[in-house]
Write a structure and sequence with these properties.
Strand content: 15-25%
Largest sheet: 4 strands, mixed
Order of helices and strands: HEEEHEHH
Helix content: 40-55%
Radius of gyration: 16 Å
Strand order of the largest sheet: 3-2-1-4
Number of strands: 4
Shape: globular
Structural class: alpha+beta
């Protein structure tokens, strides 16, 4: 079946790569204090880049390679880090936790109580 084949080609077409780049660019322009974090390819995911704003909000998209992510960051003048070396900023974890709490409250029908 080839499920565990190491010769797996990138499943992202040229148009999908363009859509990812467009989505990242649009998101970047709508947020401030953005940093990029490159995530390596694993057995389950391809290379990805995560853009994280000043408030912890983030977007994650596949990238053809870590070098492509670096080129994107250089083009837009934003800092880029290797997520496996520096980890993720606390603001990203805080944002994710807050979103989880808000989603749980909404599911229970509770009022938003910031």
């Amino acid at each position: 079946m080839g499920w565990f084949s190491r010769s797996k080609k990138s499943s992202q077409s040229t148009s999908e790569r363009r859509q990812s780049t467009d989505a990242l660019t649009e998101w970047l322009l709508a947020h401030r204090g953005v940093e990029a974090y490159v995530e390596p390819k694993t057995a389950f995911t391809e290379n990805t880049v995560v853009l994280i704003a000043h408030d912890g909000e983030f977007i994650r998209r596949r990238t053809p390679s870590p070098e492509a992510a670096k080129q994107f960051a250089r083009k837009h003048g934003i800092p880029i880090y290797d997520a496996t070396v520096v980890g993720y900023p606390q603001r990203m974890r805080d944002f994710s936790r807050k979103q989880t709490i808000l989603r749980q409250r909404q599911e229970r029908g509770e009022a938003d109580g910031d």
